[in-house]
Amino acid sequence: MGSRRTALVPRLSRRGGRLLLAVPFALIALVTVVDVLVPPDVHLGPFLIAAPAVTASFAGARMTAFVGAVAVAAQSVVAAARTTFTDLNHTYQIVALVLISVIATFFAHLRERDESRVTRLRSIAHAAQSVVLRPLPHRAGPLHIASVYLAAEEEMQMGGDLYAAARTASGTRLLIGDARGKGLDAISEASLVLGAFRVTARREQELPELIGHLEAGVGSEEETRDPDGAGSGAGTAADDTDEAFVTALVLDIPDHEPVVRLVNRGHPPPLLLRDGKVIPLDTAEASPPLGLADIVSPEVTVETFPFGVGDVLLLYTDGVVEARDRTRAFYPLTERLTAWVGDDPPTLLGRLRADLRAYAGGHLGDDAALVAIERMPTEP
Description:
Order of helices and strands: HHHHEEEEHHHHEEEEEEHHHE
Oligomer: single chain
């Protein structure tokens, strides 16, 4: 299905391009015919300037130059039909049309170059996403998993939001988080946390030890740089006020126990969908995000919640609940989910994604990540 849609988009684009190209040529033909037929004191030739100008907005430099040449030829036909080529009025019109066509061709070249650059950036971002933010497995033991990443910036495929999953001998561990800030700094922090999780999550260790490794990963690159970005040493005061941190939620879901164990480090609580209800899994004590251990030294508290067969857990980042509609009201995630309790993870995220986009008018203010996990019956 996806390949069919991908193949359909270029065909639609080519059809649209042909229809747009018909506009400047139709304009040239119309102006030429009317200008020949109207009385001698009426001059419509200046309207031909619109043909190359319009073409430059959607076509390349070569096509713009070609349309400009056709417009100049049409103006020459009008001059020959109405007076002579040496008529001063038509000469000025032809010269002006040539100049406008050259300028339009130049701007078409600039636009074409910028579009090519944006295409390359999107390709690089997509490649970076596939390496840093790997797709989650659809099945992990008894778990059915689906995930969605929504980038706020169209040119970017990935920001500071992150998620990952890892199998252990007894279950599945999952991570969802959100790095402070935007752009390359946020992506860098996200990649550090993801790397630390992938290295340590599969080991048979307790969640507090795993959190310690993730804590050490946050900001580790900045600690090896001086203010000039080339050495080690203490940072400046400005560096101290620009702390790097990552909100994170780490879950451990055993294969053979109907529970989920989690550690929440400043992240929005997961939502449990069960029996037509949406239940927030709030922790008893609030803990600061990863990366703030030097300021606050919290104890790592592991909390356990029931998670049985047929239950669905929804993990999300704050880009979801902070999406706003036209009235600046926040997205009511819990209320929306009540209509979709009972859906499997892919269906749930598909509906949630479409509803979130529609609610925000097609543009999110921040990146958003969603992970849905359903416990299936354990195979004998």
